[in-house]
Design a protein that fits this description.
It is a single chain. By secondary structure, the protein is an alpha/beta fold. The protein has a single domain (5-183), classed as 3-Layer(aba) Sandwich (Rossmann fold). The chain has five helices and five strands, in the order βαβαβαβαβα. Strand 1, helix 1 and strand 2 (35-39) form a beta-alpha-beta unit.
């Protein structure tokens, strides 16, 4: 690994005790050398409305400025009604504007979904990928990351307590590192 890549982590759940937030934090703790994770808050972003798209709207501009400085993006999200949560879709929309100035263009990405159910957010994972194709985010295809029965994977302190999942995540992060290296604009 020749790079030292800054990776934004966007969590699609706003809940403080979210299993997806716990998963994102666990992944940041096991980051391989060469990746520096930064959780980026998306909960403060007002809903995108082109009529209000003004550089003076600091929440949007601050988010865009933050995202411009990262080399890659890791999306960790639950599934709401077979799709992504509105807060995550809004972040995609805010970052894609103004037209021609998308912060997403060409940044390598990866998608992880987790849910208490057995299919692990399959619908959200694939729905998010549809948007990422349009936004020109080269997205890691394999291994796919659907974490089912996610509530059982964390202890009372919110720490990952499943060694099999830990090894699976480490393997995923190794592949993501390779993906960033191969697809990075900074490479």
């Amino acid at each position: 690994m020749s790079g030292n890549f800054k990776v934004a982590v966007l969590v699609g759940s706003l809940r403080k005790d979210s299993v997806n937030r716990k998963l994102a934090l666990a992944m940041t703790e096991m980051a391989p050398p060469g990746l520096r994770f930064q959780l980026v808050d998306i909960g403060q972003l007002p809903f995108y409305n082109e009529d209000n798209d003004d550089p003076a709207l600091s929440e949007w501009q601050d988010f865009r400025d933050t995202m411009k400085k990262v080399d890659a993006v890791l999306f960790v999200t639950p599934e709401y009604n077979r799709s992504v949560p509105a807060v995550l879709k809004n972040a995609l929309d805010v970052g894609s504007r103004p037209m021609g100035e998308s912060v997403w263009d060409g940044k390598p990405g990866a998608v992880v979904t987790a849910s208490p159910g057995g299919i692990g957010g399959f619908g959200a994972n694939h729905h998010l990928r549809q948007s990422l194709v349009f936004l020109n985010v080269p997205t890691l295809q394999q291994p796919e990351m659907y974490i089912g029965n996610a509530y059982s994977l964390f202890d009372e302190q919110g720490k990952l307590n499943n060694d099999g999942t830990r090894q699976y995540l480490k393997g995923f992060l190794a592949k993501f590192t390779d993906w960033i290296e191969a697809n990075s604009q900074a490479a």
